[in-house]
Every structure is written in C-alpha cells, then in structure tokens.
Design a protein that fits this description.
By secondary structure, this protein is of the alpha/beta class. The protein has two domains: about 140 residues, 3-Layer(aba) Sandwich (Rossmann fold), CATH 3.40.50; about 170 residues, Rossmann fold. Helices cover about 30% and strands about 15% of the residues. The chain has eleven helices and ten strands. Strand 8, helix 10 and strand 9 form a beta-alpha-beta unit. The protein starts with 8 loop residues before the first strand and ends with a helix.
Length: about 350
C-alpha cells in the first residue's frame, strides 16, 4: 500500500455555528488538529456566522488557522453555476452536512480529497465500510467523518476539559463566593417551545431558598427583560450576568458563563446553548426537554439527569411538573450532601 501524503491545506464546511454547536464541535476541531498537525485548517460557515470567529475564538486558537463566515455555499442551487471561494484550492475538503446539491456545490471547490456523507457518500473520495449507519448524534457524525478522512479512530469524549483564563475564574468567585450552595437556573432558550414556563422556574427558585440554597439565574441577552420580574418574585436570587460591570467586562461570553457554572452545586436548564455550557463546565445538571430530544445534540457532561415532557403526558414543556424538577434537584444535591 502506498502511503498517503498528509494534506497541507484542509477545509471544513459547516452551515453555521451557534454556541451549542460550537461547543459540541470542539472535539472534532481538536481531533482535526491532532490528525493534521502541520496543515493550514480553514473553517467555512457557508450560510451564516460561526462563533469560532467571535465569542468562542479563544477555544479554537491554535486549532483553526482561518474562519470564513457567510461563504455563500449551501444557500441556493444557483451556486452550481459558479466557483465557491473564488476558486481557492485545498488538499482535503470535509463536508459536514448531507444535502446533496449543497455538497455538489462544495465539491466544485478544487480539491484532492473530498469527504461528504451526502447521498450515502456518493461524492466522497473515501467511504465508510459496508453496512455503516450514520449516527444520530451530530458530534459522533463529525468524528466519524474525521475518522474517514484521517484513517484512524477518534473516540467520543465523555467530558471536555477547558482551560479558562484565570481572570474569568477570579471574577466568577467574586460574584459567587465560597459558602452558599448555589443552584443555577437557565430559563432561556432559542424559542418559546423549548422553554419551561417562567413561573415554574420561579417556583423552583423559591423551593431552593426554602431549603437554604441560593438560586442563581443565568440570563442571556434575550432574557434580560425578565430580570426585574424575577428579582421581585425571588428577592434572594442572584443575577451574576446582570451585576455591575459584568456586561462591560465580559458581555455575555460563553466562557464567563462556564466559569460561573464551575461555582454551582447544581444547574437546571432548558435545551439551549447554556445547557451545553453548564454540562461542559462540569456542573451537575437537570436538563429539561419537550419538543426536542438530546439524541442529536447531547450535552457533554458526566452528571446529567434528563426530564422529558413526554414522560408526563405531552410534548410541550408545560407538562413537566414543578415537583418532578424539585425532586430531581434534591436527588442530585442529596448525593453531594447539599
């Protein structure tokens, strides 16, 4: 067998990267650099933006050499009439999506090797073994593509260790000092169907106060308008992301939210980007699901309890009873003696 020459230029295509996507794709990005240590790696968001070019850039420093956003690939079949990326060439192109015409558009990028799962790897230079079944988990899908490209295995990580800046930890400790048992509450998400009713989070916070614990609301930019009402409903709750000077210093950085998460004894969250931040930071987590499931985008953590609305009579989040979440939180904290 003739040894394959390692690629010197690698391109990875994604449609877009939100915070949750970016966290789940980190093992792939790390594996990519491990597999192709000397290559120039270009990450292309064909449809929209990538957090790897913004708030999560520090996590891919040294892993990716270039991030291109709004590349105009995968938007419309008319792209097939032109050359993507101005005709730039790459030794290896990895397509991470499965829409055939979009893969065909990407295939027009000049390349030596092309890896794509579209149409059962029809366009792919290398293919998985006979009988291969594409996994449900997006993270595993990407690692499988990396295995095909690199010709070696890459295991799915149970957890993801992050090296956060010491200043983030110091600010998190100032806002959540040692002593209280902090219970994080993340009531937001990408849309109302994924949100447990806010009044339920208020009831859950009250239950934590009654048990001598300190509820900590983690409110992102889309939930800031809830702050006043939640302060009034739960006067003893903490709002670290709304504390004086925090927005100026950190904005709504996922990295700072993860530093705060490391101060929590437990967190309760909807299916959201914050859900993934909490899990990766190592906070014991009660994760709430309704119309979505964790099968495609499972959070990475070692202590996660899942509650599904379907187990309580319906798909909508409102079907998850407050008492069931309180009991789940008590069970987790009871294991830790809190």
């Amino acid at each position: 067998m003739i040894a394959q020459t390692p690629p010197t230029t690698v391109m990875v295509y994604v449609g877009l990267d939100r915070v949750g996507d970016g966290l789940l794709k980190l093992p792939f990005a790390r594996g990519l650099r491990e597999a192709f240590a000397d290559a120039r790696i270009t990450w292309v968001a064909g449809k929209e933006t990538s957090v790897y070019a913004g708030v999560m850039a520090p996590l891919v420093a040294g892993l990716l050499d270039e991030v291109i956003e709004h590349a105009g690939i995968g938007l419309h079949p008319s792209e097939l009439l032109g050359r993507p990326l101005g005709g730039r060439r790459f030794d290896l192109v990895i397509d991470t999506q499965r829409i055939f015409w979009a893969s065909l558009s990407l295939w027009r990028v000049p390349h030596k090797t092309f890896i794509s799962p579209a149409a059962r790897f029809l366009l792919s230079s290398r293919k998985p073994p006979p009988g291969y079944r594409f996994p449900k988990s997006m993270q595993r899908q990407m690692l499988d593509l990396l295995e095909i490209a690199a010709g070696r295995p890459f295991a799915s990580p149970a957890r993801l260790d992050l090296d956060l800046d010491a200043g983030l930890h110091a600010d998190a400790a100032r806002l959540l000092p040692d002593g209280p048992v902090y219970v994080g509450l993340a009531p937001g998400s990408g849309g109302p169907p994924k949100c447990w009713p806010l009044e339920n989070f208020i009831a859950l916070a009250g239950a934590q106060v009654a048990r001598g614990r300190a509820p900590v609301f983690l409110l992102g930019p889309q939930e800031v308008e809830w702050t006043a009402g939640l302060r009034e409903a739960v006067p003893r709750a903490l709002f670290p992301l709304q504390a004086d000077g925090v927005e100026a210093a950190h904005g709504f950085s996922p990295l700072f939210t993860m530093a705060l998460a490391k101060r929590l004894a437990l967190a309760v969250s909807n299916d959201s980007g914050v859900n993934h931040m909490l899990a990766i930071a190592g906070a014991p987590l009660v994760s709430l699901y309704g119309v979505t499931t964790p099968r495609k985008f499972p959070p990475m953590g070692e202590d996660i309890s899942f509650l599904h609305a379907g187990d309580f009579g319906g798909r909508e989040m409102k079907y998850i009873p407050v008492d069931a979440v309180i009991d789940a939180a008590d069970a987790v904290l009871g294991r830790g003696g809190a």
